[in-house]
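An instance follows:
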Amino acid sequence: AKVFPQKHLKGFPMRLVFIDLETGGLDPSKHPIIQIAAVAVDEELNELAHFERKVAFDVAQCDPEALKLGGYSPEAWERDAQQLGAVLSHLSAFLKGFDDVKMVSQRTGRPYFVAQLAGYNAATFDGPFLQAAYRQCDLFMPAAFRVLCCLQRALWHFHERDDLTPPADFKLATVCSYFGVPL
């Protein structure tokens, strides 16, 4: 079953970029992003393109438990990690291919376009981390700051449908299993 049938996206762009970050902790003001992944999809949720990069970071700034949960491997990061600014530049180029959201510059009054991000718990976690990283690198984030959150959509789904028994918890794996979505 599709969690986001087309009727639920009315008024939103049909292409979405699902984002997932691994971080060195829970606080975007002090913990680094260690990995960024994204999948762009069409209105039927078919994959159009994907992005993944490991980010170079200082292990001393991280919670060891967060690194463990994020799949950190010193060997893999030594081999594959890039500096944050370079990763964000690559991500920006990726997002530009899916810039369906029309915005208007407050400074110039001219329109411009950005991508629509979505993700699980992304409005309160991935979005703020990504915004903080772009600010830290003094780069423009070519995505809407309003991030669509699959966790919130799942919560609303069960609020709207009192005939359904909700899952035991709302962890991503549990919700995916409930809706038959491969994790």
Remarks:
- Residues 16 and 116 are 5 Å apart (CA to CA).
- The first strand starts at residue 16 and ends at 23.
- The beta strands are 16-23, 33-41, 47-54, 101-104, 111-114, 117-119, 148-149.
